[in-house]
Amino acid sequence: MHPVSVEKAIRRLRRADPVLRRLIDELGPYGIQYSPPDFATMARCIVYQQLSGKVALTIYRRLEQAASNGSPMSPRSVLELEAGALRAAGLSGRKIEYLRELAGKCCDGTLDLAALENASDEEVMRALTALRGVGAWTVHMYLIFALRRLDVLPAGDLGIRAAIRRAYGLDTLPSPSDVERMGQRWRPYATVAAWYLWRSLGDGAGL
Fold it and tell me: What does pTM read for this prediction?
């Protein structure tokens, strides 16, 4: 994100939400770390589904090592791996299916990840959820960390919900619809708000 856009987003969020203002003051400058908008990052989003950050990172690094063979991981290199090698990396049977489908669609041209860089958030959501095993959470991660979109609110993310419960002193975990409702005050910079909420957990949540 351009520095001017960051400053504008921070000013807007500080005015809109006193709780978020406190988190911003406590956590300091916005420092999101992006990944390239490519196959490897999309594969990483799939690996991270429904896993803690540390476990997912370990599995992804094993996958990357198995599929790289001295070169960056590619759709072809994943397709060439036998199921046993993928299972040895720690991947479940379903995630192996999901990764192979992603790799196959990228290889045959059905999915053009490069073209998504200029697509709207809605178009990206439609294109990626057409893949087996890819839901809204996975697309939200790709939108935030690969495509660098400013106004993405992963309302179903457990880390975001837990952070909101803690920061706002709620008795129970907010539902995704509760998060959506609360998040209206963060538009059009919901991504920045989400990053601060993740950071408030102190466990490296997110990609």
Answer: 0.91
